[in-house]
Amino acid sequence: MKRLFSILAITTIMAFGTVNASTNAFTVETATTTAVSATFQDASDDEATADESFTQKVKERFIEGGPFFMGIVLLCLILGLAIAIERIIYLNLATTNTKKLTQDVEDALNNGGIEQAKEVCRNTKGPVASIFYQGLDRADEDLDAAEKAVVAYGGVQMGQLEKNVSWISLFIALAPMLGFMGTVLGMIDAFDKIEAAGDMNPSLVAGGIKVALLTTVFGLIVAIILQIFYNYIIAKIDSIVNDMEDASITLMDLLVRYKYKRTTTVIK
Q: Which candidate, 180, 149, 160, 143, places its Cα nearest to that of 257?
């Protein structure tokens, strides 16, 4: 009986020891989790504060630059970005898988002739397909007529690709020029204050010089942003134009082979 009580006592002590150990482990784990969460929360709060501080500082500098010149510079940025985004969307939609289109047109010529090849071009978007269609539409006349049609319509398509791009280059040049003009006018105003006061007091000219420099900074920022978009658009246009030129040469080769094959068949 005593041995039974001893065993029960030892078991109870072990059980309480296990519970206490589990409780302590849970307490430590909870504290660790709370500490880590607090650390991440503090880091997130610091990052949000930094972002808010940067945005607020940009707004304050923009307002300090003056409404007239800063408003014109902002208008250049808005119009330039609007045109750039429109051109990027248009150019991405105008991009065609030239190899696949050429293969489809060749298969259509071999299987169904000119009309089936024209139908393939009608169902494909992009300037390359339009050039193919113009060349195929005059393939029954002669190869010279088809080549002239391809060249002429290629020029039309290039004009469509480059539409409104010159406006972006205008805003790129105009934004820093407006900034420099604001700088010059601010410096003139500062020297007028010096002349009126008859004394070279830094506090008289500091505000005008700061405003003058802010217009230049924001003008340069606008020009840099638009220049990045402009270079991307020009590179995209060059890529599409190269595809158009290669496709035109390929189309003429296809028409030569098609006419030769048809002539050979008629003679036989």
A: 143
